[in-house]
Specification:
By secondary structure, this protein is of the alpha+beta class. It has a single domain, classed as Alpha-Beta Plaits (2-Layer Sandwich). It contains 3 helices and 6 strands. The strands form 2 sheets. It has a 4-stranded antiparallel beta sheet with strand order 2-5-1-6, with helices on one face. A hairpin with a 2-residue loop joins strand 3 and strand 4. Helix 1 packs antiparallel against helix 2. The longest helix is centred in the C-terminal third of the chain and has 12 residues.
Protein backbone atom coordinates (compact mmCIF):
# COMPACT_ATOMS: atom_id res chain seq x y z
CA UNK A 1 0.00 0.00 0.00
CA UNK A 2 1.05 3.57 -0.63
CA UNK A 3 0.24 6.25 1.92
CA UNK A 4 -0.09 10.01 2.06
CA UNK A 5 -0.05 12.26 5.08
CA UNK A 6 -2.66 15.00 4.95
CA UNK A 7 -1.99 18.00 7.17
CA UNK A 8 -4.95 20.29 7.68
CA UNK A 9 -4.67 23.49 9.71
CA UNK A 10 -8.22 24.55 10.51
CA UNK A 11 -10.00 26.92 12.86
CA UNK A 12 -11.20 25.40 16.14
CA UNK A 13 -14.80 26.02 15.07
CA UNK A 14 -14.46 23.59 12.16
CA UNK A 15 -12.37 20.83 13.77
CA UNK A 16 -15.23 18.39 14.43
CA UNK A 17 -16.81 18.94 11.02
CA UNK A 18 -13.48 18.43 9.24
CA UNK A 19 -12.72 15.20 11.12
CA UNK A 20 -16.21 13.85 10.42
CA UNK A 21 -15.99 14.77 6.73
CA UNK A 22 -12.54 13.19 6.41
CA UNK A 23 -13.75 9.98 8.07
CA UNK A 24 -16.86 9.91 5.89
CA UNK A 25 -14.54 10.22 2.87
CA UNK A 26 -12.37 7.29 3.98
CA UNK A 27 -9.91 8.44 6.64
CA UNK A 28 -9.57 5.88 9.43
CA UNK A 29 -8.49 8.31 12.15
CA UNK A 30 -6.90 11.64 12.97
CA UNK A 31 -4.19 13.07 15.19
CA UNK A 32 -4.98 16.51 16.62
CA UNK A 33 -2.32 19.05 17.61
CA UNK A 34 -2.78 22.63 18.80
CA UNK A 35 -1.05 25.24 16.66
CA UNK A 36 -0.79 28.97 16.12
CA UNK A 37 -0.58 30.47 12.70
CA UNK A 38 0.38 33.73 11.11
CA UNK A 39 -0.57 34.38 7.53
CA UNK A 40 0.27 37.12 5.09
CA UNK A 41 -1.57 39.75 7.17
CA UNK A 42 -0.25 41.06 10.50
CA UNK A 43 -1.86 39.89 13.71
CA UNK A 44 -4.24 42.28 15.45
CA UNK A 45 -3.57 43.47 18.96
CA UNK A 46 -5.86 44.49 21.80
CA UNK A 47 -4.43 46.61 24.63
CA UNK A 48 -0.92 45.59 23.57
CA UNK A 49 -1.69 41.87 23.61
CA UNK A 50 -1.32 39.91 20.42
CA UNK A 51 -4.55 38.36 19.14
CA UNK A 52 -3.15 35.25 17.46
CA UNK A 53 -5.33 32.94 15.48
CA UNK A 54 -5.62 29.55 17.20
CA UNK A 55 -5.71 26.62 14.80
CA UNK A 56 -5.87 22.89 15.12
CA UNK A 57 -3.42 20.81 13.11
CA UNK A 58 -5.12 17.63 11.99
CA UNK A 59 -2.97 14.80 10.67
CA UNK A 60 -4.50 12.03 8.58
CA UNK A 61 -2.47 9.05 7.36
CA UNK A 62 -4.47 7.76 4.40
CA UNK A 63 -4.21 5.33 1.51
CA UNK A 64 -2.95 7.14 -1.58
CA UNK A 65 -5.96 6.34 -3.76
CA UNK A 66 -8.29 8.00 -1.24
CA UNK A 67 -6.26 11.15 -0.55
CA UNK A 68 -7.90 13.45 -3.13
CA UNK A 69 -11.42 12.59 -1.97
CA UNK A 70 -10.44 13.24 1.65
CA UNK A 71 -8.71 16.53 0.75
CA UNK A 72 -11.86 17.68 -1.05
CA UNK A 73 -13.99 16.82 2.00
CA UNK A 74 -11.61 18.76 4.28
CA UNK A 75 -11.70 21.74 1.93
CA UNK A 76 -15.50 21.98 2.05
CA UNK A 77 -16.00 21.13 5.75
CA UNK A 78 -13.27 23.55 6.87
CA UNK A 79 -14.48 26.30 4.52
CA UNK A 80 -10.90 26.67 3.35
CA UNK A 81 -12.07 28.79 0.43
CA UNK A 82 -12.66 31.62 2.92
CA UNK A 83 -9.70 33.78 3.94
CA UNK A 84 -8.15 32.91 7.31
CA UNK A 85 -9.86 29.54 7.75
CA UNK A 86 -6.71 27.48 7.21
CA UNK A 87 -4.92 25.33 4.68
CA UNK A 88 -4.46 21.65 3.89
CA UNK A 89 -1.75 19.82 1.99
CA UNK A 90 -0.54 16.27 1.49
CA UNK A 91 2.84 14.59 1.37
CA UNK A 92 4.00 11.17 0.24
CA UNK A 93 4.93 8.76 3.02
CA UNK A 94 7.89 6.44 2.45
CA UNK A 95 7.09 4.05 5.29
CA UNK A 96 4.43 3.60 7.95
CA UNK A 97 4.34 1.14 10.84
CA UNK A 98 1.87 0.41 13.62
CA UNK A 99 -1.20 0.35 11.38
CA UNK A 100 -2.28 -3.21 12.13
CA UNK A 101 -5.72 -2.18 13.41
CA UNK A 102 -6.43 0.04 10.38
CA UNK A 103 -4.99 -2.06 7.54
CA UNK A 104 -8.00 -4.41 7.15
CA UNK A 105 -10.32 -1.43 6.61
CA UNK A 106 -7.90 0.22 4.18
CA UNK A 107 -7.38 -3.02 2.24
CA UNK A 108 -11.14 -3.56 1.95
CA UNK A 109 -11.62 -0.04 0.59
CA UNK A 110 -8.87 -0.59 -1.99
CA UNK A 111 -10.40 -3.90 -3.11
CA UNK A 112 -13.90 -2.39 -3.29
CA UNK A 113 -12.63 0.56 -5.33
CA UNK A 114 -10.49 -1.35 -7.79
CA UNK A 115 -12.42 -4.60 -8.28
Amino acid sequence: MRFKLILALVNDDYQDAVIKAAKDAGATGATILNARGEGIHSQQSFLGLSMESQKDMLLFLVEDFNANKIMEAIYHAGKLNESGNGIAFSMNVDRAIGLESQLPVMEKEVKDSYF
